Structures are given as C-alpha cells and as structure tokens.
C-alpha cells in the first residue's frame, strides 16, 4: 500500500489541478486506486470541472470528496485562501466500493442490517471500513451513524461534513467525477486494509464526575440529587477568574460512554453543547438525550486545552499502535480549530507528524466531524478526527 498527499494554493483552478496531479503522480509512480479531493469555496464556479479533470488526468479508479472551507494536504493546513488538496493511494488487495445515499434512502433504525447492506452494497462479512462525507443541509448524519453502527459493528467510520456554504444547495460532493448537491458520499474499504481512528475533542474537565439523578429527554434536572444549575454554580465558584469568564461561552458537558466503568478518565466522555437553561427551575438543556444514572462531567475548551488533549490522544494512539505499519492518514478538523483557535496554521497537522511521523496526511476543515468515542460513531463539533490507514500486518 502506498499513499501520496499534496495541496496547491494557486489562484487558478487549472494551475492547481496540474500541480496536484503532478505531485501525486510523482509520489505514487502509478495511477491510484482511490483519490480524495477537497476544494475550497473560492473555486465554486469550477467544482464540476475540477472533479472531472482530476479523475481523468490522474486516471484513478475511484474519486470522492467535497467542497470545503479549508483544505489539508501534504500535512499542511490551508485556511482563508484558495486551495485544492488531493490525497491518493494504491491499495493492493483492497476492494473499494463507492456509494451515494440521500436522506430518503435510509432504512428504519429498527430494520434488519440486511437493509443497510443492500443500500450500501457491502456485507458485514466483508469487514469493511468507511470514509464518509455529507452535506449538512440535506442529510442528518446522527440518524445515519446510529443505523450504520448497528449494521456494521466494529467497522471504522471517519469523515466530515462539507463546509464551503452557508445555505442549502451551495455545497457539493464529489463521486467519480460527478458533482452532487445532497446526501452523503462514501467508500467502503475491505480486504487487506486497516483504518484506525483517533478523535481529539479539545476540552479539559472541571469539577467532579457526577451522576444524572433526574432528567427528561435532553433536559438535565438533577445531578447527584441537586438542581443542575446549582451544581454548575458550585463548580464555577471553585474556578480561577479567567476560567470563570470562559464559562460564559466555552462550557460543555461530557457524557460518560461506558456505564460499566466505575470511574471515568480522559477520552471516556462524549463532549456535547449546553443549549439552554431554565433558571427558575434550575434545569439545563443538553444537545443529546440523557438517561438517569449516566455519568457526566463539565468541560471547558480553549487553545491550551485543545493542544493538551490532542497531544494526549495522539501519544496514546502511537503507543498502542507502535507495531502497526501505516501508509497514510486523513485529518478532518473543525472549522473552529486551526487559525481561529490557535492563532496560527498547521498546529494539529504538526502534532500528528510529531507523534506518528511523516505519513502523507490529507483532509479538510469540516462543518462537523465523524469519528468514534467509546466504540460508537458520532458527529462532533470542535474536534479533529483522524483516520490512519495501512495494510493488515
């Protein structure tokens, strides 16, 4: 298995196409089996021509991708300027199955896994892994991912939401030279391939681990038998002044993912937004369904916390996979990270290189990131979701 990744920041679409295709050809030495193409919004009038031209000139078997608010290629993050990234691989012994689905195509979440297999065209027995890219205005990834995990348990699923638009109809998805404006595109990879994942949510915990003692749907009423807002006030009083100020715009809640664990540690929580409060009743509203007995812990997010969390996630990943020989990697990072969070470009890409070496790394800045926490696949915000690919050892 061999991968190559590049990014071009020239102002003309044709110049970018030429540079990207030439770089990948030199890196691979032969036509690729799979190519991932991400194009910044600056080339919105040329989307269709870019995808078709890249596939024809590169002579790749399968091409997928989407429009993006920022692109990543050759381990470089490009934000706020024209850019096209191209990441491609030669995958011997790997079956590559591309697909496109719309929201109306989704089977019932209570339906048989066979319905999902028929829709995607790949069986669970093939042990596939997935790269997924969706349009956030026409597709609900949360419903899809829940059913997808049910149909393909144990399969790695990583990707992101197109991010070049502020309204319906402006994003595009690429699939084999075609330009689509709705749904989700993806590839199932089966055979001699591993796709391992690492998700950095970028927060640090404040206050103790708590238990939900009363809730309704997404309404958090009591924590450890106290009104939820009283608990938050107690935690707030114990914080440093700069942290107290940050609570106003950067307080999140972490939901424990493993009910069997008596204690929770780094990486055990799924970070979700607090979306409202009822001050009179002392209740909080969470962007997720809750259940009584669930462990939770409040979290704050800032540049320092995000950097620390990323280092911890990548260090842990590198330690657990030091015997695995990887060939390439993908980075799907939130539009709210990068320069907006750190004040400079390439932070996350550089940390990846520090821990995992100089693997070809490509991807884009997303409107939502897809990746697993605690063995379940979720749609995230403010995260960096990595997919690291290689042959089976």
Description:
- 25% of the residues lie in helices and 39% in strands.
- The chain has 393 residues and is of the alpha+beta class.
- It has two domains: 2-200 and 307-390, no CATH class; 204-300, no CATH class.
- It has a six-stranded mixed sheet, with helices on one face. Strands 5-4-22-21-25-13 form a six-stranded mixed sheet, with helices on one face.
- Helix 1 (13-28) packs parallel to helix 2 (47-58) and helix 3 (113-120) crosses helix 4 (141-151).
- It is globular and about 65 Å long.
- The protein starts with a strand and ends with a strand.
- The model has no long low-confidence stretch (mean pLDDT 93).
Helix and strand arrangement:
Elements: E1 2-8, H1 13-28, E2 34-40, H2 47-58, E3 62-68, E4 70-73, E5 76-79, E6 84-90, E7 94-101, H3 113-120, E8 129-134, H4 141-151, E9 157-161, E10 173-175, E11 178-180, E12 184-191, E13 194-200, E14 204-216, E15 219-223, E16 226-227, H5 228-237, H6 241-250, E17 251-256, E18 269-278, E19 283-286, E20 295-300, H7 303-320, E21 328-334, H8 338-342, H9 347-356, E22 361-366, E23 369-373, E24 376-380, E25 384-390
Parallel strand pairs: 2-3, 8-9, 21-22
Antiparallel strand pairs: 1-6, 2-6, 3-10, 4-5, 4-22, 7-12, 8-12, 9-23, 10-11, 13-25, 14-15, 14-20, 15-16, 15-19, 17-18, 17-20, 18-19, 21-25, 23-24
| Radius of gyration from CA coordinates | 21 Å
Structural class label: alpha+beta
Please tell me what the overall shape is: globular
Instruction: Work out the count of structural domains.
Output: 2
Unreliable spans are none
> What share of the residues does DSSP label as strand, in percent?
35-45%
Count of helices? 9
Largest sheet: 6 strands, mixed
Helix proportion range: 25-40%
């Amino acid at each position: 298995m061999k991968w190559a990744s590049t990014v071009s920041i020239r102002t003309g679409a044709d110049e970018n196409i030429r540079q990207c295709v030439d770089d990948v050809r030199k890196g691979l030495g032969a036509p690729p089996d799979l190519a991932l193409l991400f194009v910044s919004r600056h080339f919105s009038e040329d989307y269709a021509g870019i995808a078709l031209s890249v596939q024809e000139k590169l002579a790749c078997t399968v091409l997928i991708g989407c429009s993006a608010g920022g692109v990543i290629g050759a381990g470089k993050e490009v934000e706020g300027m024209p850019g096209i990234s191209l990441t491609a691989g030669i995958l011997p012994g790997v079956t590559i199955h591309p697909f496109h689905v719309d929201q109306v195509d989704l089977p019932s979440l209570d339906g048989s896994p066979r319905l999902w297999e028929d829709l995607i065209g790949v069986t669970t027995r093939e042990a596939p892994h997935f790269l997924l890219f969706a349009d956030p205005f026409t597709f609900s990834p949360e419903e899809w991912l829940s059913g997808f995990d049910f149909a393909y348990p144990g399969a790695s699923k990583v990707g992101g939401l197109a991010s070049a638009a502020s309204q319906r109809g402006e994003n595009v998805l690429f699939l084999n030279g075609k330009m689509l404006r709705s749904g989700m595109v993806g590839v199932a990879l089966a055979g001699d391939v591993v796709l391992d994942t690492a998700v950095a949510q970028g927060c640090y915990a404040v206050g103790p681990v708590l238990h939900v003692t009363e809730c309704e749907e997404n309404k958090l009423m009591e924590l450890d038998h106290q009104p939820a807002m009283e608990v938050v006030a107690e935690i707030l009083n114990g914080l440093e002044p700069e942290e107290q100020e940050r609570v106003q715009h950067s307080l999140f809640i972490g939901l424990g993912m493993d009910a069997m664990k008596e204690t929770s540690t780094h990486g055990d929580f799924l970070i979700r937004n607090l979306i409202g409060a009822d001050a009179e009743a002392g209740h909080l509203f969470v962007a997720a369904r809750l259940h009584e007995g669930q462990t939770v812990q409040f979290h704050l997010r800032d540049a320092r916390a995000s950097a620390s969390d990323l280092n911890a996630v990548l260090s842990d990943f590198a330690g657990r996979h030091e015997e695995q020989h990887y060939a390439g990697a993908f980075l799907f990072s939130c539009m709210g990270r990068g320069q907006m969070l750190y004040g400079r470009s390439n932070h996350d890409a550089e940390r990846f290189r520090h821990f995992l070496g100089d693997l070809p790394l490509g991807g884009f800045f997303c409107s939502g990131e897809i990746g697993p926490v605690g063995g379940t696949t979720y749609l995230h915000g403010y995260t960096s979701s990595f997919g690291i690919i290689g042959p089976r050892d």
